[in-house]
Each structure stands twice: as C-alpha cells, then as structure tokens.
Model the fold of this input.
Amino acid sequence: MEKKIFAHPQALRDVPLLYCPGCHHGIVHRLAAEVIDEFKIREKTVLVGSIGCSVKAPEYFNVDSIGALHGRAPATATGIKRVQPDRIVFTYQGDGDLAAIGTAEIIHAAARGENITVIFVNNAIYGMTGGQMAPTTMEGQITQTTPYGRDHLRNGYPINVAEMLAVLKGPSYIARTAVNTPQRIMETKRALKKAFENQINNLGFSMVEVLSTCPTNWRMNPIDACKWVDSNMIPQYPLGVFKNITEGEAA
Done:
C-alpha cells in the first residue's frame, strides 16, 4: 500500500512561480505555506505584500492578502492586526523595501512590539529594478551603481538588520537563516514556525531574515550563487538567533 508523504501546501496556489531561475523566493514561499498549513491557520491568515520582487507574493499564497506602499508593509500589518487581533498577519519583504525606504517602518513596528510576523528576504541587491546597490549590498560587491564595488567611504556600510532590531525591547524573536543547502532550508522552516507560533501566543514582534540568491543580478549561475552565499554573505550576515523571548519571559 502506498502512503502519501508529500503534498502541495494548501496555503500556496498551484500555479507556476515566475521568479528568475535559481531565485530562492519560491523556497521561502513553500516553507511559509507549510508552516501556515501545519498550524491550520490558513483561513485567518493575512499576507501584506511589499514592492520589489516580493510584490508577486500575493499571487502565490492562497490566503487573504493586501499590497502595501513601498516600505509600508509593517505599518499596514500593524493596522490590520490592531483592528482584527484574531488574524495572523505577516509581511513578506525584500531588502530594498524593508531596509531602504521602509527602514523607519520596520524599526518602529519592532520597537512597539507589534504582534506580527515579518519574513525578510535579503539578497543584497535590488532585484526587480535591475541590480542596483541596496542597503545590504556588501563592501566590494559589484552592482549596476557600484561598478567598482561598494566603497564605505562613498556608499556607507551595509546594514545588518537582524542585529539592529535585536537590541530593541519590543521584539520577541529575531533570527537569520539561509536556504542555500537542504540543512539550512530545514533550519529556516523551524525559524518561520517559531515566528508564527510567537504571534499565535501573543508574544509580539518576530522577524526571520533569510539570506537568498539573485543569480540574474549577481551575474552567476544558480550553483555558484548558492556557494556565494557561504563565501560572501554569511561572513557579513552571520546566521543564528539574535533574540528569543519565551512565553514565560514575556509574562
């Protein structure tokens, strides 16, 4: 007798993903959808989409969704959660959206301890608009607007968002993961599960930063892009849990 051990998540629409080959958005979508299914919260979950490649996310998640203005997803999510606190609200944002035009939004949502979940996909570059330098672009990294590599004297230093938010009193859970290997994919799912669980338990703000590839704008094949995460991104953006407040500690 055959036993079914793998199925398409109900929280993810059964449609082709139109991201570039080798992009990790699809993996992150799948993991978030699996977590939503496992908690059986699909019918009360609300996705707040952002601007950038992540603007496509509402097309793929089979949950209620709304598009926010550029960088304003945390503010929109805050409004939804405060008006309908029984809803499970999460934002899905890239580094150009969250760490650039949305810097104030994410900092103050975290500082207030809003009971929302943030999925932050960091590929260290502007993807949708053609590969310009982002706030998370690393020193020496070549982009369309830093053809000789990012220079901190001219362009400033990259922003480590997870570390920055972890020093605030508001957040209950801040973690950084990656999805460039099978083991890290499973670690990312555990982190996402914790972030959604915290919201279900009313523990406040949670964010999971996921290091992702952008083979198209990095100008490399998907295999080399996965290796580049190890050799270049993780030294700048180390993986780990930066803040973790348990239910007992929150009380």
Notes: The first strand starts at residue 45 and ends at 49.
